[in-house]
Amino acid sequence: MTDTGDQKNLGLLWALHARPTREARLVLTVDRIVNAAIDIADGEGIEAVSMQRVAANLDVTKMALYRHVSSKAELVAVMIETAVGEPPDVTHIRGGWRPRIERWAELMRATWQKHPWLPTATTGDRAIGPREIGWTESALSAFAGTPLSGAERIDAVFLLSGHIRNTQAAAGAGTQPWTDERRARPELAELLRGHGDRFRHILSAVNDAHDAPPDNGWAFGLDRILAGLDQLIKEKRA
Amino acid sequence: MTDTGDQKNLGLLWALHARPTREARLVLTVDRIVNAAIDIADGEGIEAVSMQRVAANLDVTKMALYRHVSSKAELVAVMIETAVGEPPDVTHIRGGWRPRIERWAELMRATWQKHPWLPTATTGDRAIGPREIGWTESALSAFAGTPLSGAERIDAVFLLSGHIRNTQAAAGAGTQPWTDERRARPELAELLRGHGDRFRHILSAVNDAHDAPPDNGWAFGLDRILAGLDQLIKEKRA
DNA sequence: GAAGCTTTGTGTCCGGCGGACACATTGCGT
DNA sequence: ACGCAATGTGTCCGCCGGACACAAAGCTTC
User: Which residue in chain A has the smallest CA separation from B210?
Assistant: First the structure.
């Protein structure tokens, strides 16, 4: 629970795409380091990303990396900023808030799906970059014209991005293995059954859900959230 | 992304409250270890929990701990299992699914609030214990009698527990500092303003939200989710 | 072209981490 | 009193992030 202010050098994070003229072809650059790290994280998970490992992939000693990033925390922050990509502009989409936010959610989910380590890496105390904030800005813009208050819009966006994070986290790791018995270890299913009727609601629900789409509740949750927002918006309009 | 099956010794986790007769007064016990670890995590965050640190708090060498827990992963698993506590029984609550699930959510949130490290500790690949499963069972029982399918019930519970996790995670760390400008570092607010109208929706929303309750969208999200579920249930009943 | 200076990468070292393993100690049953 | 199993200790290993002094290149300026 350290103060976020302790983290070093937010400068690089926020100046990422405003680098000055000098463009000399350097053997080692921030981009190469970040991309190497993202490659490792995509393939082997964020916990496989160590300075040594990244350096080895670039045929360089780990201390060389510190000439370009000031700490591992900064490296991870820039990894996240790079992985989430440029936020989309959904303001041109017609039909009101709903198609706009649906499109936004679809794009965000697609982006996060490419980098299964994002839910883990973005949990906890950390610095946040402009692109990440840009995604929030983009989502908030979808609610322009609705009767929702500022606080409500923020909460709505938080709710939606949280849902994306949760479903992606569950996909990346076996966070809720009971949601999909096919993925659950036989051991666990066995344990459940061994406890008799203590878990009868789970067992019957899982039994009933054998043909459900393996999306960790993404579509279901999104629909429920949007329905809930729709109800509030209609109520406030009346 | 290691296979969960790699983790050692699920035996202890699942036998936690079925320990046999032999109850000799031992200096060092699993309970003392786990409680010491939880104390540290509650006070200083989960990242402060190392085997050395726990051992020091018990005036013992770290290797002594390994006589009682087989690995740090197991210790953390039992910490979680202990921290979440016994799941509640909400089946006796009258008035249908809604008061039952509301009560469940309230209890779960209260429990998680006592241990701000739970969101972090329960993210990623890990083993899950019977109590944690029991909370899911408890939530699922609230939907007994509704027209929701098994898959829908599971998704609904996942959606709700995800919301609790998200709001708690945001409370424990500065995950979404823009949600509450009072907590945001002045530096960040300054950066936002410095970008002109690039973040105008955020700035105006935050400006408008200065008197919002600092619950990270808990009440708002819960209401929206329940409204969304209500709509689906009514629709399926018709 | 030589001298200096800055930039970039290297080598070494540190404390802390999780954990394997051999050893010391203790206490209980015989 | 003996032996044995349970419990705690000490030492060692490889890995982690990172501080710091040093080497090797350029580039600038005479």
Answer: A151
